[in-house]
């Protein structure tokens, strides 16, 4: 009976674990864990459950983002070489820069961490499922199947939600700026530039802007007021003018190549 229990027990692969912890990818995993831990502690500090040292956890959460996205950039350069035109189009580069600026500006705004947390959640789940569970012989465990099902079902939605939250973040930072909150102007401008870059490279972000534009058209048509029509027209012209200036990527060239 004891032999049967021993045979049925999951096999722990110590050698595989040692190889994992020495890999660059494990450092990426640790960075994502730090992001989640820092966000959790910052959140409960925000609601006064912990002593009011939330700013430390905010910075730690972003430090985790710097580690994880920094490692991805190192791997990108290893694969492609240090090619600036490619690098500035890479999503990981955008988020690395954003985390760097947020640390430097010390805005300590809760919502600015949420996109990082969404990404880190799925990264941690993926890594735990594909790398850590097999170390303990649990790759066929129901836990692994549940993680796989959850990630497959929600991964695309998580990216869409993250893009939506980035738009909400700009709105929130704008409200902080016009109410003269401390350290509010620079974070708003930085996030505005970040959103411009995301609009150039992310179809999800563009879909949100298209949706907002369609809703604005419908609302103005329902109002049927000449002043509202003229004002909304000026807003759309302003957005088209801003869109004509490319920071990192001119997608119209891609559209021409696809024809």
Automatic annotation (TrEMBL):
The keyword Glycosyltransferase does not apply. The keyword DNA repair does not apply. It is a multi-pass membrane protein. One of its GO terms (biological process) is membrane organization. GO terms for cellular component: endoplasmic reticulum; membrane. Keywords: Membrane, Transmembrane, Transmembrane helix. It holds the Pfam family TMEM33_Pom33. The chain crosses the membrane at residues 26-49, 55-74, 95-119, 156-175. It is found in: Membrane. Its main location: membrane. Belongs to the PER33/POM33 family. This is Nucleoporin. It comes from Candida maltosa (strain Xu316) (Yeast). The lineage of its organism: Eukaryota, Fungi, Dikarya, Ascomycota, Saccharomycotina.
């Amino acid at each position: 009976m004891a032999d049967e229990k021993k045979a049925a027990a999951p096999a722990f692969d110590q050698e595989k674990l040692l190889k994992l912890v020495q890999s660059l990818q494990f450092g990426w995993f640790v960075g994502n864990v730090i992001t989640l831990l820092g966000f959790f502690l910052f959140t409960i500090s925000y609601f006064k459950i912990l002593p009011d040292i939330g700013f430390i956890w905010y910075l730690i959460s972003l430090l985790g983002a710097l580690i994880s996205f920094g490692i991805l950039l190192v791997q990108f350069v290893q694969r492609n070489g240090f090619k600036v035109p490619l690098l500035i189009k890479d999503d990981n580069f955008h988020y690395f820069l954003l985390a760097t600026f947020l640390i430097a500006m010390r805005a300590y705004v809760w919502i600015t961490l949420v996109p990082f947390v969404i990404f880190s959640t799925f990264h941690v789940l993926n890594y735990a499922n594909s790398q850590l569970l097999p170390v303990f012989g649990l790759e066929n465990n129901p836990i692994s199947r549940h993680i796989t099902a959850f990630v497959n079902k929600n991964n695309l939605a998580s990216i869409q939600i993250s893009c939506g939250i980035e738009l909400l973040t700009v709105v929130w930072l704008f409200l902080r700026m016009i109410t003269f909150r401390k350290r509010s102007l620079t974070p708003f401008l930085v996030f505005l530039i970040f959103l411009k870059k995301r609009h150039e490279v992310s179809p999800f972000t563009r879909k949100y802007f298209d949706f907002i534009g369609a809703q604005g058209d419908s609302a103005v048509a329902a109002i049927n007021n000449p002043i509202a029509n003229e004002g909304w027209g000026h807003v759309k012209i302003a957005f088209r003018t801003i869109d004509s200036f490319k920071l990192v990527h001119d997608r119209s060239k891609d559209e021409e190549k696809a024809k």
